[in-house]
């Protein structure tokens, strides 16, 4: 705390006890100087500087944890003036010592600033990058689960809303932000379009009722164990993919109830650290009851986004994958993300995919020019558990905002990721490797 008042939280050896000695010495020096020179108002300045400091510590030690070093920023300017008074006193008695102390203080602040700008432990959390990846990989029907506190505001703030550049395209805006404790009561009752992202905030599991001052609208709210488990079971029946924006969960879920439930009922298929000092993570879980896949996704286009259901006639690619598809014409605005629902099945008797297969969703104009392309590598193609089962897969294709009005052909290519070679159509060897899906 004293080091933060003198030279910021990133000062060298900021938690070492010698900073306390230096701070106390400077305070005593400033007090002696002020008294000897009868500076007016010095008592008021002393109270303004030290009394809030004492209140923070007193309440923290006797009532409730309240103190955080950042709260001292309100009083740091007066504290520095107190230090300046001490240096002035030294200067009147010994200019050399005063100049040496001043240079030392400047050097320490320079070191502190350098650490603040360059040291990994002071690096800001990259929520902008994490939310950008989340928005890019979100699919209709996905649920976003975010830990209690202010973390959801990072998603609301950095969720893409502005088109930048001719190739830019936006995902649908966030439809709703709700509490986990309210989710079970309102599940299935929301009038928001199913194609829009739903953000669910967890509470502090088994936290005290007084949390958040007992205000039911507070970002910090208590939720008991039973309600938490019931809500998790409810959302797992409605969503097969759950994004967990994990931050400070050891504080609001110290027993790890939510993490354990996700580990027991879903597969962790993606786990990325959010760079910065707070050890956040962006995780994607696929719930075990895959039979409910995509039923939360819309069957037609909405004003917020476009989702094409691809069903019916079949096309086989390679010796393993079978795509069920039926063309469907529609109109879609440029600058939005197109979501295409497809249904796949591994051919009977085929072994799991040994070589990774990738998908390439492409948009061509009437001259055959490629307008947009998005490649992906679904993990289920090499998952033994998907043998002889139907798997719903939603693909995404950002449509550049500069795309001119007209008719475009939407096509899909399956290829070996290692070689880039298209998979042949075993039902028609002369067929074009590009599978026609629809015209938009």
Account of the protein in words:
The relative contact order is 0.09. This protein has 440 residues and is of the alpha/beta class. The strands form four sheets. It has a six-stranded mixed sheet. Strands 9, 10, 11, 12 and 15 form a five-stranded mixed sheet that branches. The protein has a four-stranded antiparallel sheet with strand order 14-13-16-17, with no helix packed on it. A hairpin with a 3-residue loop joins strand 10 (314-317) and strand 11. Helix 9 packs parallel to helix 11. It folds into three domains: 2-122, no CATH class; 127-292, Rossmann fold; 306-439, Immunoglobulin-like (Sandwich), CATH 2.60.40. Helix content is 32%, strand content 22%. The termini are far apart.
CATH topology of the largest domain: Rossmann fold
Spell out the helices and strands N to C: HHHHHHEHEHEEEHEHHEEEEEEEEEEE
Portion of residues within helices: 25-40%
Main β-sheet, in a few words?
Answer: 6 strands, mixed
Overall morphology: elongated
Gross CATH architecture of the largest domain: 3-Layer(aba) Sandwich
First and last CA, distance: 62 Å
The top-level CATH class of the largest domain is Alpha Beta
């Amino acid at each position: 705390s004293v080091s933060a008042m003198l030279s910021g939280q990133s000062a060298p050896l900021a938690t070492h006890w010698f900073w306390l000695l230096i701070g106390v010495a400077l305070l005593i020096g400033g007090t002696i100087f002020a008294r000897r020179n009868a500076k007016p108002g010095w008592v008021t300045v002393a109270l303004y500087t030290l009394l809030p400091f004492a209140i923070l510590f007193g309440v923290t030690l006797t009532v409730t944890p309240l103190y955080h070093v950042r709260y001292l920023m309100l009083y740091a300017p007066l504290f520095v003036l107190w230090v300046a008074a001490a240096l002035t006193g030294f200067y009147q008695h010994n200019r050399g010592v005063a100049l040496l102390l001043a240079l030392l203080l400047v050097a320490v602040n320079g070191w502190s600033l350098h650490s603040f700008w360059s040291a990994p432990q002071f690096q800001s959390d990259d929520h902008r990058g994490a939310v950008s990846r989340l928005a890019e990989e979100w699919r209709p029907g996905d649920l976003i689960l975010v830990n209690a506190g202010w973390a959801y505001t990072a998603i609301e703030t950095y969720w893409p809303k502005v088109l930048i550049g001719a190739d830019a395209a936006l995902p649908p805006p966030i439809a709703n932000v709700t509490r986990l404790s309210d989710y079970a009561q309102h599940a299935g009752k929301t009038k928001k379009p199913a194609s829009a992202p739903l953000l669910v905030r967890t509470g502090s599991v088994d936290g005290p009722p007084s949390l958040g001052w007992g205000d039911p609208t507070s970002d910090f709210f208590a939720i008991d164990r039973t309600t938490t488990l019931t809500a998790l079971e409810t959302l797992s029946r409605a969503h097969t993919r759950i994004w967990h924006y994990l931050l400070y969960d050891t504080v609001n879920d110290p027993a790890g109830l939510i993490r354990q439930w996700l580990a027991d009922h879903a597969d962790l298929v993606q786990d990325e650290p959010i760079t910065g000092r707070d050890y956040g993570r962006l995780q994607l879980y696929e719930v075990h009851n895959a039979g409910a896949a995509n039923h939360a996704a819309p069957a037609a286009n909405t004003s917020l986004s476009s989702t094409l259901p691809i069903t019916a006639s079949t096309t086989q690619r390679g010796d393993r994958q079978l795509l069920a598809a039926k063309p469907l014409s529609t109109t879609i605005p440029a600058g939005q993300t197109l979501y295409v629902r497809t249904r796949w099945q591994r051919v009977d008797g085929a072994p799991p995919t040994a070589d990774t297969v990738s998908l390439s969703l492409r948009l061509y104009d009437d001259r055959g020019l490629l307008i947009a392309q998005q490649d992906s590598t679904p993990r289920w193609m090499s998952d033994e558990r998907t043998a002889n089962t139907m798997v719903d897969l939603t693909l995404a294709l950002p449509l550049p905002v500069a795309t001119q009005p007209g008719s475009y052909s939407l096509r899909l290519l399956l290829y070996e990721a290692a070689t880039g070679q298209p998979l042949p159509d075993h039902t028609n060897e002369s067929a074009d490797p590009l599978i026609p899906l629809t015209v938009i």
